[in-house]
Design brief:
Helix content: 25-40%
Distance between the termini: 69 Å
Strand order of the largest sheet: 9-17-16-12-13
Oligomer: single chain
Radius of gyration: 35 Å
CATH architecture of the largest domain: Alpha Horseshoe
Shape: elongated
Length: 642
């Protein structure tokens, strides 16, 4: 079995050293493996180069003399791993599994070695070996938490959600209350689109994380804060995180913040994947996991020349170096591991270098430009299902995994009231008459971030397009202020669409008040003091021969009998660039009418018969005059014909 690992080079160097005169000076009188191992540790503790050489010799001799001493082999394997001599660690652990196939600790450590090897080589065979050893370890030891965490991570990076969830639940049973197990459950639940379980798991776990690890989950922007993340206290970092995600919740109709859950699950996956018995190894690979998720592919470098006796993922990088101020520039080379992470949906191809040859990857050495990756702006602009942070330094999903974006659109209309404004929202989506679509909305005070209205309802057949679309109406009375409105449609079969709207509710005037002017396809008449209308979202009502619009008036002046009188005039005209500056558009249709009303409030429909209109943009203008007070108001709405 070929192990593509830098330890192969280390083994060759060690063999050469053992044949050198330095080796001959080592004391060979004591061949007991316990004594040899203890002497090796003492030499390692001394820390000099010569002591390290003696230690490696003594450790090798202890392994040779260990016989069936599994404890010595375990100790040697751990020491080799800590020193980065992974080939020798493999050898010791393989011997243990031959001597005692049911040794769970050896299986788990072999799983770790194969996992790190796979993370460098991206070889499917290495992945399979890692997963097999972890599964054996978990089966042999019901208390082995680390193997269950590793299985969760390995399964999820390959989108094996069933195995990932099973391993996470097993970890939870194995170590109740463990923060790592809860992170595994949260990560797996999110990947299974169970956002409520994921949210509960993360919210209960994050406060209990160690401070150093908790910061990884605090904010996706890192240096985007005024102060670096490391410079913030735990409380400051938590507060900054709340503000960051509150302003970036992609769907206010749900109690969870889907984009934040995507971020948390990515960090959790990186923590589970890039960990061993010494803790989490956070390098640029883990950073990319947190910022952009699992890459579409990981590409190793091209194979070396046939005459190069190096590993297939070992490359050589040029480094510019100037010997003296007057001397010429020369290029020297140094070996490093390399892999390229590819995110085609973001237009990103990120090369990574492991210059230490210790499985710690960073960005390549560059001259004259920043190597930190950023997505292509035009690709981000075309993806409404993604949330970008800090100019693309992090990109997160607005929908959970397994949910397909669904086209939806909405319109927001304001109608004046006595002391408040009636806000009316219409949500429309494609759907046949037999389809069941559910709509929901959340209305939030933009300044305070507080939800003041929520609702849900079944979409009904559209009057504008009875065959192809369905629509639902939501409304609420609101005080003056700025508002954010999210509307969502869901077919409960994996498709969901979200629309974001915003608007300003004016202070109701004391005199004549006129609402927005709305082109409508149909109405349901008065119901409980309100009118349910269906706006023409395409703005194409005029091409059918009749143009219908709706508006409301309030605070009309009353005579002694409680009646109000008003007049309105409407015009339909073409909107186009005039040949001569200052020329006004010519009215195609114009009419006026006087009305008497009971009370100060009026709900008014206007229907205008229009001739066949050529292709272009038109506008309908309605002017209102209160005949009692003399006050006037006007509104305009545009529409198109094709």
């Amino acid at each position: 079995m070929k192990r593509r690992h830098p330890a192969r080079l280390t083994a060759l160097l060690l063999s050469a050293w053992l044949l050198s005169p330095v080796a001959a000076r080592a004391d060979s009188s004591q061949t007991d493996p316990d004594s040899l191992y203890r002497r090796a540790l003492r030499h390692l503790q001394a820390g000099t180069t010569q002591d390290r050489q003696f230690a490696m010799q003594e450790l090798e001799q202890a392994v040779r003399n260990s016989g069936r001493r599994v404890d010595i082999l375990h100790a040697a394997a751990w020491t080799y791993s800590a020193l980065g001599h992974y080939g020798q660690a493999h050898h010791c652990l393989d011997r243990i599994t031959q001597l005692e196939p049911d040794d769970a600790r050896a299986q788990a450590r072999l799983g770790q070695l194969w996992k790190w090897q796979w993370l460098a080589s991206v070889d499917p065979a290495d992945y399979s070996n890692a997963l097999d050893h972890f599964l054996r370890a978990a089966k042999l030891d019901p208390r082995d938490l680390e193997s269950r965490l590793a299985i969760t991570a390995l399964a999820l990076v390959r989108n094996n959600r069933k195995l990932g969830m099973a391993a996470a639940r097993s970890a939870e049973l194995c170590a109740p209350g463990s923060v790592e197990a809860e992170l595994a459950v949260g990560c797996a639940a999110y990947r299974c689109a169970d956002v409520s379980t994921a949210d509960r798991a993360f919210q209960s776990t994050l406060p209990r994380l160690p401070a150093s690890l908790r910061r990884r989950f605090t904010d996706p922007r890192g240096a985007a804060f005024d102060a670096p993340l490391e410079a913030l206290s735990a409380g400051e970092a938590d507060s900054a995180s709340v503000v960051c995600w509150r302003d970036r919740d992609p769907d206010l109709t749900t109690p969870e913040n889907e984009a934040q859950l995507d971020f948390l699950s990515r960090v959790a996956l990186a923590v589970l994947l890039f960990r061993d018995d010494r803790g989490v190894r956070w390098d640029m690979r883990a950073e990319l996991f947190a910022r952009y998720g699992i890459p579409k592919s990981i590409v190793p470098p091209p194979p070396p020349d046939a005459d190069q006796d190096v590993e297939t993922y070992l490359s050589f990088a040029p480094m510019r170096y100037i010997t003296t101020a007057r001397g010429p520039e020369v290029d020297i080379v140094f070996p490093f591991h390399m892999q390229t992470w590819v995110y085609p949906e973001l237009g990103m191809s990120v090369p990574l270098w492991d210059r230490s040859l210790r499985e710690s990857y960073g960005l390549p050495v560059t001259y004259g430009h920043d190597a930190d990756p950023r997505p292509a702006p035009q690709l981000l602009a075309a993806r409404s299902d993604l949330i970008a942070i800090d100019d693309g330094r992090g990109v997160y999903r607005a929908l959970p995994p397994g949910v397909t974006p669904m086209d939806a659109r909405a319109v927001l209309t304001f109608f004046p009231g006595e002391r408040e404004t009636r806000l009316v929202a219409h949500l429309e989506a494609e759907g046949r008459p037999s389809d069941s679509l559910w709509g929901s909305w959340a209305l939030v005070d933009a300044n305070q971030g507080r939800a003041i209205a929520r609702g849900e309802g079944l979409l009904s057949v559209s009057a504008c397009d009875p065959i192809g679309h369905k629509i639902v109406q939501f409304d609420a009375e609101v005080p003056p202020g700025e508002y954010r409105l999210d509307l969502a449609v869901d077919d409960h079969h994996g498709r969901r669409g979200v629309v974001h709207l915003g608007g300003h509710a004016e202070e109701p005037p004391t005199g004549l008040a006129m609402s927005d002017l709305v082109l409508v396809c149909g109405t349901s008449g008065a119901s409980g003091g309100s009118v349910h209308i269906e706006p023409d979202l395409d703005g194409e009502a005029g091409q059918h021969g009749t143009l219908t619009a709706y508006f409301e008036m309030n605070h009309l002046a009353l005579d002694p009998e409680g009646r109000s009188r008003y007049a309105y005039r409407y015009q339909v005209r073409r909107v186009e660039r005039e040949k001569r500056s200052g020329e006004s558009p010519v009215a195609i249709v114009e009419a006026s009418r006087e009305e008497t009303n009971i009370g100060p409030r009026r709900r008014q429909f206007v229907s205008a018969a229009v001739p066949p209109l050529g292709r272009g943009t038109y506008e309908l203008e309605v002017d209102v005059r209160d005949l009692g007070s003399g006050e006037t108001a006007a509104r305009t709405v545009r529409f198109t014909t094709r």
